[in-house]
UniProtKB/TrEMBL annotation:
It comes from Oceanobacillus locisalsi. The keyword Transmembrane applies. Signal peptide: none annotated. It holds the Pfam family DUF3100. This is DUF3100 domain-containing protein. The chain crosses the membrane at residues 12-33, 39-60, 72-95, 107-125, 162-184, 190-215, 227-249. InterPro entries: DUF3100 (IPR021450). Keywords: Membrane, Transmembrane, Transmembrane helix. It comes from the Bacteria.
Length: 279
């Protein structure tokens, strides 16, 4: 019977290390501290990531554990897709009631592609830029990229890097931005509350918390709209990422890199011609 069990499921060393890391991370719990009007929230996931990286440099982790962890991670991301789907289903009726406004809000998030991808390429980032810029890189984005490109792809490395960066600094950015817009612009606080729901619970909480501090008399409405917007963004964002944002990011990457390659070829040809002329 045991012979029929896949080797990666019998890797008790890997399972034991993962269990120990999870227990340590959960025992520490979340940690937060304020930065101006924003707040930095350190989740147990960050501790788990650091402990996992540290474990790689110990003799406990061998090449076999690397191979088995890749298989298990791919399988577990399938469960993540199922979890995201469970959140999307109940929100479909709400999406129909809200109408096109929420869809237009989600399409506005394409700014991550239109602005972020060219900047990433200017900074010298390669195909990682696709994973880094096609969304704000939350859980659903991890599932989409891993399913299309595979766990060891540069696109997956890109989306994981932004996922971790956003988990640490995203809430701070949203909290400070919401506070600034509420204080120095004439934008309606309820519109800002709707904009808080980009699909991340921590970012939404930081943004709506800052807005509630500026407009305490509207705190209940702000929290309600922000929460509803977040649920809808998770649902609509999944489809926008698959059918619009990711294809757009790939096409833009191919367009920019092909132009760069053509310029390099032209430059090399001109250099060769000058050398021949000088000879």
């Amino acid at each position: 019977m045991l012979k029929q069990i896949p080797e990666y499921l019998k890797d008790w060393r890997l399972h034991g290390i993962v269990l120990l890391i999870v227990l340590l991370a959960e025992s520490i719990g979340p940690f937060s501290f304020e930065v101006g009007a924003g707040m930095i929230l350190i989740l147990p996931m960050i501790y788990a990531f650091i402990l996992g990286v540290a474990a790689v440099f110990t003799p406990v982790i061998k090449e076999k554990q690397f191979k088995h962890s890749e298989i298990l991670t791919t399988a577990l991301i399938g469960l993540l897709v199922a979890k995201v789907s469970l959140n999307i289903g109940p929100a479909l009726s709400m999406i129909v009631q809200v109408g096109p406004a929420i869809l237009l809000q989600e399409i506005g998030n394409l700014g991550t592609v239109l602005l972020g991808l060219p900047l990433a390429l200017l900074l010298g980032v390669k195909r990682e830029a696709i994973g880094m810029t096609f969304s704000i890189a939350r859980e659903g984005s991890l599932a989409i990229i891993n399913d299309k490109f595979g766990f060891n792809s540069p696109e997956t490395r890109g989306v994981f890097s932004i996922y971790l960066f956003g988990s640490i600094f995203g809430a701070v950015f949203f909290g400070l931005t919401a506070s600034f817009l509420a204080t120095f612009t004439p934008l309606n606080p309820l519109a800002l509350a709707m904009a808080s729901g980009v699909g991340s619970a921590s970012m939404m909480a930081a943004s709506s918390g800052s807005l509630s501090a500026v407009y305490p008399e509207m705190a209940a409405e702000i929290q309600s709209l922000a929460s509803a917007s977040m649920i809808l963004s998770v649902a609509t964002g999944f489809f926008v990422s698959i059918f619009i944002a990711l294809p757009l990011a790939e096409k833009m990457y191919n367009l920019f890199t092909s132009r760069k390659s053509n310029k390099e070829v032209e430059t090399n040809e001109q250099t060769e011609e000058k050398k021949e002329a000088n000879q």
